[in-house]
Amino acid sequence: MEEEENTKNKIKKNGDEEAEKVIRLVVTKEADRAVSEVMDAVNTGFEAGRATKLDVASYMLIWFENNASKDAKLALRMQLANEMTMLESLVKMAKNSGTLPPALKEALAQHFFGEDAAPARKVKKILKPDGIIDRTSEEGAA
Questions:
Q1: Residue 44 Cα distances to 51, 59, 138, angstroms
Q2: Residue 56, Cβ neighbours under 10 Å: how many?
Q3: Among 20, 73, 31, which Cα is nearest to 53's?
Q4: Are 51 and 43 spatial neighbours (Cβ–Cβ below 8 Å)?
Q5: pTM confidence score
Q6: CB 109 within 8 A of CB 118
Q7: At what angle do helices 29-43 and 53-67 cross, to 10 degrees?
Q8: What is the mean pLDDT for each group of 10 consecutive residues in the chain (142 residues)?
Q9: Confidence at residue 106, expressed as pLDDT on a 0 to 100 scale
Q10: What is the Cα–Cα distance from 136 to 142, expressed in whole angstroms?
Q11: Under 8 Å between Cβ of 50 and 43
């Protein structure tokens, strides 16, 4: 009997250790579908073991952490960006620095005061054909 209790305690202890390594994660239905498809692809023709959703999802997340390019991380940030949060962040930075970026100043002026408030853009002078003097002297190369 003592031996059975020791075995049960060891099993329970090992189960607790395994439970400490795992946390719950909620994902969208689309992400769950993708994990299921990857799991099926991994298990197809794989006779040496069996991949679970937990194995596949864990591998994918760790792989992303270690191998994702800056472009992939930027794409994720852009997908998750929220205009109101960006605006609040910009206001906070402007309050700390006391200045606004010129493009934002123009956008605010245009929004609140219309097209008339936008600063006039500098007009570039057009190059006239008679304005170019390209003569070589007759005495030799210039």
A1: 10, 17, 84
A2: 20
A3: 31
A4: yes
A5: 0.56
A6: yes
A7: 100
A8: 54 62 92 97 96 96 96 95 93 91 87 73 70 61 53
A9: 87
A10: 6
A11: yes
